[in-house]
Amino acid sequence: MNSFPYLTVLLLIPIGAAVALLFVPGKFKKLIHTVSVVTSVAVFGFSALILDEFKSGVAGYQMVTVHSWFGSLGIQYSLGIDGISLFLVLMTTILFPIALAGANEKRNTKSFVIWTLLLEAACLGSFLATDLLLFFIFFEATLVPVYFLIIQFGYERRGYAAVKFFVYTFLGSAFLLVGILALAFIHQSQTHVLTFNVSRLANTHLSSMAEVLLFLAFTAAFAVKAPIFPFHSWSPDAYSESPTSGSILLAGVMAKLGSYGIIRFDLGLFPHAVVMLAPLFLTLGAIGIIYGGIVAAKQRNLKRLVAYSSLAHLGFIVMGAFALSNEAVSGAVLQMLNHGIYTAALFLLIAMIYRRRGTHLLDGISGMQKSAPILAAVFILMVMASIGVPGLNGFVGEFLILAGTFVTHRWWAVVGVIGVVVAAVYLLWAYQQVFHGPEKGHYIENEPKDLTLKEGMVLAPLVVLVILLGLYPKPFLNRITPSVDKLIGHVEQKARVKLPVPASPVASEAHNTQYGKAAEAFAVVSDQKTGVYAAGANNRDASTKNCYGSLWSVSSPQKPMSIVSCQARIS
Amino acid sequence: MVTGVIAAQALHLPHVNYTTIMPELILLGGMLVLLLVSALFKKGLPRDFYASAVVGIGAASLIASLVLYHDVAAHGSFTAIAHSIDVDGFSVLFLTLVSCITIVYPFFAHAYMQREGFEGVEFFALPLISGAGAMFMASANDLILIFLGLEILSIPLYVMAGMDQRRETSGEAAMKYFIMGAFSSAIFLYGMALTYGATGSLNLAEISAFLSKNYVFGNGVLLAGMGLLLVGFLFKIAAVPFHFWSPDVYQGSPTVATGFMAAIAKAGAFAALIRVFMASFPTLASDWQPLLWVVIVLTTLFGAVVALVQKDIKRMLAYSSINQAGFILLGLQSDTSKGIGASLYYVFIYSFLILGTFAIVAIAGAKGDAIHNIDDLKGYAKSHPFLATSLAIFLVSQAGAPFTTGFLAKLQVITAAVEAHSYALAVIAMVSAAIATGFYLRVVYVMFSEGTGTKNALSSGKEIYSLSPLGKLNISPWLFTGIVLCLSVTVLFGFWPQPLVDFATHARLLFR
């Protein structure tokens, strides 16, 4: 194990820069802005170093740092990174420099960059924390910078949006805090150790009722943060009233705190409840997909449109998380990254349109393609990625999610596919309205018409990622899947997952003989309360090379096997 | 013959161990010296002298408190002066806290009086008396002494509430506070009488001993006594439904006095409340816990919801302080040593939060406390970045933002409640905290938004402070130091909680 505290340093760089900038007089705007961009790029460089150090194929936490922080309450400062958090950390470190460089806050630059850097530290801390209370603290700490970013730099209704955002998410957190404490005390009553360490708490024995209640308490916070339908009503206001950087960070990074929380904590800590309530949340995800799409189609404000499309995309991620198959959860993790990238790009592009036309309203803009062909090209690329056109990143994630969901929960996947079509409708409508048709509306004077070099440089990394992730996702999946497999294995082992269709004893015997080793792993256990369970503790080798992964590998000797494992699950 | 014996016994004076009440004696003695010295000078002495003197007196009593702390840590807790004074970790914590409040207060009072053009020693002398009263309440082991402490604490506060004679509202506040205070004292006294009737003693330890040895059949008198004592305390800490006086009094009093009142009255009343219920009535926990449960639900929710619709910042803070009182009660309600530690920590850090908050509200309020409409704070961040940022930190901390003391305080009381399996209560309290963020953040939003209020609070502040050495900040060095003190407590112990938490934990460990 490497003793260098990579993760702590990663957190300290933005905090240190923010503290240092505090002492720079506010009038040196250029200097402050440059320093902040350089800092955030340095953070990215450092996270790239972490990516390099990260051992692919390892499932557990790496680069772990543990220190006691608040002894009497058992709170530890403990950080770690695994396949689930790795790319979220990278996405965070990529989006922050872009948000900082792409932002154009001429008033009060100092306050803007300090809050943004603190927000970066808080977001990174949330993704890295392996102590539940430390996670909670970082999770809450993200609210304050965002609040200040919205109220100082937002649009007309910023006050309303900021308070709504804060109160809503805090309300969710209220339940999360009580849930965390309750879980820790239940664990303490069993082991006489008061700890908030996630891995240790995962071994708590919970009664069915307690587990469901705790799951709901945790999920309340994550569902609001993500947001999951019907807890989303703060998000269109907050996204549309935020400054551009705020929208990018809210939709790109902070929304992932919610879905990350679901995958990391709900699945890790309450497997039984997750399995039990999966249909409910799959349904909410599916409703989110359809509802978000339909409402997005009705929006006349571009930012609100992207906000609702985010709701739909988060619906996919939630669906993937609760589908509980290796492919779907891997897809959900990957889709978090994808969604961050193209949503950030879309918000940036909308800001660029605003710079030229002074409005976010679809009715005020038309026919921009003639004067801004490159802008139009990048926009349509991001729209395509968002719709999920093959070859671009959105497709990979959505396909994995839908394929994985289809294996375990067929009809929800079918509904999800409809959502993809709806996404095509509203995004292409919006594109047509803005860029095609007769040239309408007036340009703001003294502003460039097409993409400038600086804007191009801000967008370039996102364009590269959209294509790279779309064409060659293997290196990403290689790092994600071991952790996901471990998580799913844990869920199956703990919850003794019931197969989607209860197999009769005869049928399951047939499995054993027919499918050899892969099916042998499914020890069928009878339980008085819930019928027939199958424990799939050792099915990892069969499902690691999942149905989809094999499409991308050059040769696929495992393919027949993976179909077997899929079939085993269906039947 | 018989009468002679009684007389001899009555005249028997207990041995007085003066070191055990040294902090109280320093405050009271210092107050007398201050009054005497000021009387010797016909024209009075400069404000700087008074303020420095009070800081000095506070510092001396802080040292005396720390000496006592050392004693307790070395030799364990003990009682003194005919078992009416407790010297334990609990009392030492409050002695320290009250000393700290006494040290911080003159910084704000100085700036306030400078602006208002007030002269005189009273604004500095009265808090010392109040402080001594709060200390007696915290270290008393006897209901009589608690009552005396309560009165010593309260009477100077009534006067301070009415100090601003130019405003009618100030007089009204004093009158209301006095009548309601007297009313609650009477209830408290009646509770004492009934408790004495049921248990035969006013000494907290003896009450507890009596209750643990005897099972009181048909204990209506005892329960009534306990209930009335509780009501008396709830009046003082302004818990719902005994809160009606607080918004008017908070609003009407001179703002700096409001801050002091909020800090010291809470400290004293909570100290006595916790001690009485933990030391005397632990055996009756199953009777007072449900009562407190209801009070906490009402207090937290009512405080948060009503604060949302307030337009006056002082009224808003009054309701916010009602909400916070509910949180402090949460620790006591759990009836565990951890809960008590959490409540103590909460009281400790809240005092600094509320002192700092009201100090800035006082300065923003302009001459004569004229401007207390929240909307008038518009643009405050631009004109007074330091004050606005500090107020934002205090408010966000009260809302419970991480890396401030407010978060750890809420975390600990909620932890205590969850550990005692009061899940519903914990959730309700947290929901109230979520509602509360709404009004705390509204103030922050207004300060950081563009434009200026109808009456700009700032212009009136400038003329007073523009000549101060800290010219750029537009505030007097006294005020600046005071705010920095409160800020450093709030932020420092937010990052580095252990020492303060240990202090509160020791308090409950040595608690008898």
Walkthrough of the structure:
The complex is a heterodimer of chains A (571) and B (512). With 571 residues, chain A is mainly alpha-helical. Among the domains of chain A are: 289-491, no CATH class; 498-535 and 538-570, no CATH class. Helix content of chain A is 72%, strand content 5%. In chain A, helix 11 packs antiparallel against helix 14. Chain A is globular and about 70 Å long. The model of chain A is unreliable at 498-571 (pLDDT under 50). Chain B is mainly alpha-helical and 512 residues long. Chain B has 21 helices and two strands. Chain B has helices at residues 2-11, 22-40, 47-75, 89-116, 122-139, 143-161, 168-199, 204-213, 220-237, 245-252, 255-280, 285-308, 313-334, 337-364, 380-383, 385-399, 405-419, 423-448, 457-465, 477-495, 498-509; strands at residues 78-80, 85-87. In chain B, helix 2 runs antiparallel to helix 5 (122-139), helix 4 (89-116) packs parallel to helix 14 (337-364) and helix 16 runs antiparallel to helix 18 (423-448). Chain B is globular and about 70 Å long.
- Strands ordered across the widest β-sheet of chain A: 1-2
Cα-atom radius of gyration of chain A: 23 Å
Give the overall shape of chain B: globular
Query: Total number of helical segments of chain B?
Result: 21
Number of strands of chain B: 2
Mean pLDDT of chain B: 86
Give the class of chain B from helix and strand content and strand pairing: mainly alpha
Short description:
The complex is a heterodimer of chains A (about 575) and B (about 500). With about 575 residues, chain A is mostly helical.
Feature tags:
A: 24 helices, 4 strands, globular, disordered C terminus, B: 512 residues, mainly alpha, two-stranded antiparallel sheet, 21 helices, 2 strands
SSE inventory with pairings:
The complex is a heterodimer of chains A (571) and B (512).
Chain A: H1 6-22, H2 29-53, E1 62-70, E2 75-81, H3 83-102, H4 109-128, H5 132-141, H6 143-153, H7 158-191, H8 198-201, H9 208-225, H10 234-241, H11 244-269, H12 271-298, H13 302-323, H14 326-357, H15 373-387, H16 393-408, H17 410-435, H18 453-471, H19 474-495, H20 505-514, H21 516-520, E3 523-527, E4 531-535, H22 540-544, H23 549-552, H24 559-570
Antiparallel strand pairs in A: 1-2, 3-4
Helix pairs in contact in A: 1-2, 1-4, 2-3, 2-4, 3-4, 3-11, 3-14, 3-18, 3-19, 4-5, 4-6, 5-7, 6-7, 7-9, 7-10, 9-11, 9-12, 10-11, 10-13, 11-13, 11-14, 12-13, 12-17, 12-19, 13-14, 13-16, 13-17, 14-15, 14-16, 14-18, 14-19, 15-17, 15-18, 16-17, 16-18
Chain B: H1 2-11, H2 22-40, H3 47-75, E1 78-80, E2 85-87, H4 89-116, H5 122-139, H6 143-161, H7 168-199, H8 204-213, H9 220-237, H10 245-252, H11 255-280, H12 285-308, H13 313-334, H14 337-364, H15 380-383, H16 385-399, H17 405-419, H18 423-448, H19 457-465, H20 477-495, H21 498-509
Antiparallel strand pairs in B: 1-2
